[in-house]
Amino acid sequence: MSKKRCQEILERYHNDRGNVTTILQDMQDTFGYIPEDEVEWISKELNIPSSSFFGVATFYDEFYLKPRGKHIVTACCDTACYVKGSDNIIDTLRSDLKIAAGEDTSDDGMFTVQKGSCVGACSIAPVVTVGKKTYGNVAPDQAADIIKDVK
Fold first, then answer.
1. What span, in angstroms and rounded, lies between the C-alpha atoms of 93 and 146?
2. What are the boundaries of each domain within the chain?
3. pTM strictly above 0.90
4. CA-to-CA distance for 70 and 108, rounded, in angstroms?
C-alpha cells in the first residue's frame, strides 16, 4: 500500500468525511485506478463501510478497480459500429496484444482494450479511438496497424 499517498487523501476528508464519490475520484486520480487495499484502509480510517466505496465504484463506468494501460483503445459498440463488426475488432485487438480472457489490459501495461459508446462518428463506422485519436472504417485486419501507429 502507498500509505503516504493514502494519508494525503485521508487528510482531505478526515474532518468533513467528504462523500464517497469524491474520495474515489481522488483515489483514482492518485493511483490511476481504485486499489482494493487502499479502499479498505481509508474506509477503516473514516469509519465508512468499504461496501459503500465498492458499491459506488462498481456502479459507475468511470471508476476502474484494476490498473489501466498507458494507451486506452476503445472500440465503439453502439449500433452502427456493432453492425459493421466492432466485436471482431475487439477480439483481434485482444488477440494481437495477448490480453488474457477476463482481462482488459496487456501484461506490459501499455494497452487497455475496451468497448465504448457512440463517439458521434457513425458515418465512418466502425470506429476505434486511442486517446484523442479516432480511426474510422476500421477492419479487423487493420487492428495491428493501429497498435503499431500508437507504439
1. 9
2. 3-59, 71-150
3. no
4. 10
Dihedral angle, C-alpha 68, 73, 77, 78, nearest 10 °: 100
pLDDT exceeds 60 at position 17: no
pLDDT of residue 18: 59
Beta-carbon neighbour count of residue 145 at 10 Å? 12
| Angle made by CA atoms 102, 139, 134, in degrees to the nearest 5 | 80
d(CA 92, CA 94): 5
Assigned fold of 71-150: Glutaredoxin (3.40.30)
Length of the chain equals 151
Q: How far is the C-alpha of 109 from the C-alpha of 118, rounded, in Å?
A: 26
